């Protein structure tokens, strides 16, 4: 009888512990954690994994505190309807707000949207403006997209040396990205005089 009572108590304790674990509140992301999620493009999936528990906290940090990382996250959630009702114009508003505060990932995303015509009409000049700002902040995705655009005939050849310097000085441990950078550098080399290439390698642009 005593063993049965102990077994019942242990079962109850286990159930209570499991329930407590399920009800444990999800902690809001720190700035560094959120930026890492954004860089890895895991920010939206993380919100879903967390059962949408942080929607109000994210909104407060985006709308009231005007924190650029959270503006970007809130904008993406609105644009794609993740855990909240989809509202593309409002989503773009908060992405733009994050870009205005100089968040490299937001600048790159806005540039990509204007380049591809996603959510907005294609605007190459606007795309280049956003991408150049992001590229200057060492965003490799922006640098590579700019290179693609320059090599396709967009932009000004006067901007080639600066982009070459940025790509030449870029740092990545991803072998695939490293190879793509090398390919773009080789193609840009063909578009510039040798003396300009050498100066760009030495960071004089």
Main sheet attributes: strand count, strand direction, barrel closure = none
User: What percent of residues adopt helix (DSSP H or I)?
Assistant: 55-70%
| Strand residue percentage | under 5%
* Terminal CA distance: 84 Å
Q: Structural class given helices, strands, pairing?
A: mainly alpha
In short:
The chain has 205 residues and is mainly α. The chain is 70% helix and 0% strand.
Compile the SSE list and pairings.
Layout: H1 2-23, H2 31-39, H3 43-49, H4 55-63, H5 68-80, H6 88-100, H7 104-116, H8 124-136, H9 140-151, H10 160-168, H11 175-189, H12 194-201
Can you put this structure into words, describing what you see?
This protein is mainly alpha-helical and 205 residues long. It has a domain at 30-101. 70% of the residues lie in helices and 0% in strands. Helix 5 runs antiparallel to helix 6 and helix 8 (124-136) crosses helix 9. It starts with a helix and ends with a helix.
Any key phrases for this structure?
205 residues, mainly alpha
């Amino acid at each position: 009888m005593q063993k049965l009572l102990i077994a019942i108590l242990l079962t109850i304790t286990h159930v209570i512990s499991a329930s407590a674990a399920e009800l444990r509140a999800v902690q809001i992301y720190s700035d560094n954690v959120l930026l890492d999620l954004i860089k890895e493009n895991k920010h939206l999936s993380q919100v879903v994994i967390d059962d949408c528990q942080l929607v109000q906290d994210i909104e407060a940090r985006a709308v009231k505190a005007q924190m650029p990382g959270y503006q970007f996250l809130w904008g993406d959630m609105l644009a794609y309807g993740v855990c909240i009702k989809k509202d593309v114009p409002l989503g773009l508003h908060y992405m733009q707000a994050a870009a205005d505060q100089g968040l490299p990932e937001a600048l790159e995303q806005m540039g990509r949207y204007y380049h591809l015509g996603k959510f907005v009409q294609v605007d190459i000049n606007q795309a280049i403006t956003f991408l150049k700002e992001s590229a200057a902040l060492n965003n490799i995705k922006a640098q590579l997209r700019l290179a693609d655009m320059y090599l396709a005939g967009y932009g000004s050849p006067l901007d080639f040396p600066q982009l070459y310097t940025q790509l030449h000085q870029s740092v990545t441990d991803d072998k695939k990205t490293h190879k793509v950078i090398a390919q773009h550098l080789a193609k840009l080399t063909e578009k510039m005089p040798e003396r300009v290439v050498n100066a760009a390698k030495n960071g004089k642009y």
